[in-house]
Amino acid sequence: MNQKSIRRARVTDYADIYMLNLDFNPNLRTFSENKVKEKLETIIHHTNDMILVCEYNDEVIGYIHGSPYELLFSDPLVNVLGFVVKERYRNQGTGSLLIESLEQWAQSGGYSGIKLLSHPSRIQAHNFYERRGYQFTKDQKNFIKKLK
Length: 148
Hints:
Blueprint: E1 5-8, H1 14-24, H2 33-46, E2 50-56, E3 59-69, E4 77-85, H3 94-108, E5 114-116, H4 123-131
Parallel strand pairs: 4-5
Antiparallel strand pairs: 1-2, 2-3, 3-4
Helix pairs in contact: 1-2
Pfam families: Acetyltransf_1 (PF00583)
Keywords: Transferase
Organism: Paenibacillus lautus (Bacillus lautus)
């Protein structure tokens, strides 16, 4: 019986990450596999972000993307920008392995905490975070302005 393992993402994981994104939200189809590959190359080679994947039987079944950031009113934090587990592997400890690995990385890097946003409708996800010590802090509205 193979164990789940956590490792840093590689550029060659782009197709698996693309499929995980679609598993999370089919509307992400417009962000092509090739764009995911380009983003992975940029993030891995030009940022301090951490992208971890979970493998099981040589299959990437989940990923988490943490991005360090500095604030003028807080100690440095890591922001979770993406966190997806393939649907058939949910509720089997995969998400816990991923988030705990990111927490260990953040703690060893001297970051003061981890922040994440979760859509109000994702009640199961909220319960997952709360069981791991994450506290709900505030409702927010997100705004975006497209520049292209």
